[in-house]
Design brief:
This protein has 5 helices and 7 strands; from the N terminus they run E-H-E-H-E-H-E-E-E-E-H-H. By secondary structure, the chain is of the alpha/beta class. It is globular. Bound molecules: inosinic acid.
Length: 193
């Protein structure tokens, strides 16, 4: 099995990645705790590439990184790459977003997820971006998920991400869409090795 270091310190994210990548012959591990990487890029993909490259170079192993966030149309794409830094806690971030949107009628928004895989020398081998469109509600609904999930509503399911089961959220989510694009490429990569 080839080791794939996931550029996150979050065991929950590692478990989610494991679900998407099971059966591909990779052994997923968490990045070393002391390895901190500043997200200094100005796009989701720039940040994913930066993180994957630096973790690969530091560990000498293949590395996978993702960067994601919420873009609200009426806020010209904010909070975007600053989604995690928009407030101290999830409720703070939700409150700030709802305040900034106020009674705006255009509630359209999208979650975006960029994923990059780097070779052990740091060169980017694969990249994919997934998008999930939806609407921002006026108040939170549901208790599942994390982050902005309780205010992100998917009209076709008539549910917020926080009301979906993890399986249903995976089908719709930006991360799920990005992995759908990435997985066939990953198969080719393995056979070329
Ligand atoms: P990162 O990609 O781990 O840096 O996450 C960026 C931020 O975007 C998170 O802290 C969340 O606030 C938000 N975010 C990303 N993906 C999701 C999601 O699936 N649901 C809710 N919030 C998300």
């Amino acid at each position: 099995m080839t080791v794939l270091v996931v550029a996150t310190g979050n065991p929950g994210k590692l478990r989610e990645m494991q679900t998407y990548l099971s059966g591909f012959g990779w052994e997923l591990t968490l990045k070393p705790e002391e390895l901190e990487i500043e997200e200094s890029g100005d796009t989701f993909m720039a940040n994913a590439c930066l993180k994957a490259s630096q973790v690969a170079q530091a560990t000498g192993e293949w590395a996978l990184a993702d960067d994601s966030g919420l873009e609200v149309d009426a806020l010209e794409g904010a909070p975007g790459i600053y989604s995690a830094r928009y407030g101290k806690t999830d409720p703070d971030r939700i409150e700030r977003l709802l305040n900034e949107l106020g009674n705006e009628l255009n509630r359209e928004a999208q979650f975006v997820c960029a994923i990059a895989i780097a070779r052990p020398d740091g060169a980017i081998a694969l990249q994919a971006e997934g998008v999930c469109r939806g609407e921002i509600l006026h108040a939170p609904r549901g208790t599942g998920g994390f982050g902005y999930d309780p205010i992100f509503y998917v009209p076709k399911e008539q549910m917020t991400f926080a009301e979906m089961t993890p399986e249903l959220k995976r089908q719709w989510s930006h991360r799920g869409q990005a992995f759908k694009i990435l997985l066939p490429q990953l198969q080719t990569l393995k056979t070329e090795d």
